[in-house]
Amino acid sequence: MFSKHANRINRFVCASKHYATQSKILVDKPIVEIDGDEMTKLIFDEIKAKLVFPFVEVKRDYYDCSITNRNQTQNQVSRDAAAAILKHNVGVKCSTITPDEERVKEFNLTQMWPSPNGMIRNALNGTQFRESIIFKNVNKYVPGWTKPIIMGRHTFGDQYGGKDVTIKKPSKIFITIKSDDGTEDSVEAFSYKGKGVAMLTFNTEDSIRSFAVSCFRMALERNYPLYFATKSTLLKQYDKLFNEVFLDVYEKDFKTQFEHANLTFELRLIDDMAAQAMKSSGGFLWALKSYDGDVLSDVVGQGFGSMGLMIHSLVSHDGKTVMTEPAHGTVTRHYREHQKGVTTSTNPISSIFAWSRGLQHRAKLDGNAQLENFSKALEKATVGTVEDGLVTKDLAPCVYGKEFKDKFLSTSEFIDEVVKRLK
């Protein structure tokens, strides 16, 4: 799939193109590049070689966050990458392996290292936004969605930051709160008759407030109404704080702006909102807590055609720092085929947009109009390729129906078609 001659061939292909006939676009300040694993790493390498670096001269603060290097550095590389993104304000991250027990054995890991994403999310104290790219010729699994649905996911605490334990014998479990003033309160949570499990989740008012500010700012930027959905009827204290903070931020800081823009904000129950979303035409920002956002953003992404069509970014609460990455994982199944020498058809669009949106944010911060125009041209070329009927295997059924047969390209062929349209 990835020919050793690809870079040499690419030089000749690009030589006739508009961007390549001029000197490269110069970028004064660096971006942070975070490398990853498996199929997505190979796709990133090809995107860099064919679609980015022939046209853009940019310094990269590089961090290898592959599972093997995270193990070798005892995950210090993830901490360093997070600090670098805060320093330079722009990061482009490849998908990485989050190991389970089988992966620990496969890579001979010293422990089950966590995903770098959690560390980076906590460092940025940011919000994860996901949005599907809409193509004229891609039939959606939810046909009524004619406008984008932007998913805003809180990325601090909750299940992903909490603690889970196994109960091995009859026991009682308590939540104990030790205050700084020396007082202590304890609440019995459950009495076990035998084996079981338990989990403690947490969050902070400051983090929820930053999340709310990011969501309101994004809704105004895109001119979309905002819905925040929880299960406050069940989690009467936990979700109550989220709702109270969102209302407070809205009333104090955003109500006037929303009214001037003729936009609305609503608190909704998550089950009701999920049903309403399926009946809608799209065109709104849906804010969710961490686990809810993780699951439902994948549902929405597939509803628009494919997870490979999602734009994914992590935005700090002040909007200054952005990390972009593909909205999918390392695509292990395709990588296993690649290891056997089989040519694969993995959708690279989310990875292409990770690079284009990272470059766009660098351009915005630096006032670099050339870079902004190039990043938009890269996206236009990618969309044009799909709308010309040239797609990878995952999109073929959405374009050609069930009898798509061989009407799809390999990953390299698709990227080469984007190169042809990048004028």
UniProtKB/TrEMBL annotation:
Keywords carried by this UniProt record: Glyoxylate bypass, Magnesium, Manganese, Metal-binding, NADP, Oxidoreductase, Tricarboxylic acid cycle
GO cellular component: cytosol; mitochondrion; peroxisome
Record GO terms (molecular function): isocitrate dehydrogenase (NADP+) activity; magnesium ion binding; NAD binding
Keyword Ribosomal protein: no
GO biological process: glyoxylate cycle; isocitrate metabolic process; NADP+ metabolic process; tricarboxylic acid cycle
E.C. number: 1.1.1.42
UniProt-annotated binding residues for Mn(2+): 271, 294
Residue numbers binding NADP(+): 96-98, 103, 279, 329-334, 347
Site (Critical for catalysis): 160, 231
Cofactor(s) this protein requires: Mg(2+); Mn(2+)
Record's cofactor remark: Binds 1 Mg(2+) or Mn(2+) ion per subunit.
Domain of life: Eukaryota
Catalytic activity field: D-threo-isocitrate + NADP(+) = 2-oxoglutarate + CO2 + NADPH
Positions annotated to bind D-threo-isocitrate: 98, 115-121, 130, 153
Name of the top EC class for this enzyme: oxidoreductase
InterPro entries xref list: IsoCit/isopropylmalate_DH_CS (IPR019818), Isocitrate_DH_NADP (IPR004790), IsoPropMal-DH-like_dom (IPR024084)
Gene3D superfamilies reported in the protein's UniProt record: Isopropylmalate Dehydrogenase
Pfam families the UniProt entry points to: Iso_dh
Family indicated by similarity: Belongs to the isocitrate and isopropylmalate dehydrogenases family.
Protein name in UniProt: Isocitrate dehydrogenase [NADP]
Source species: Zophobas morio
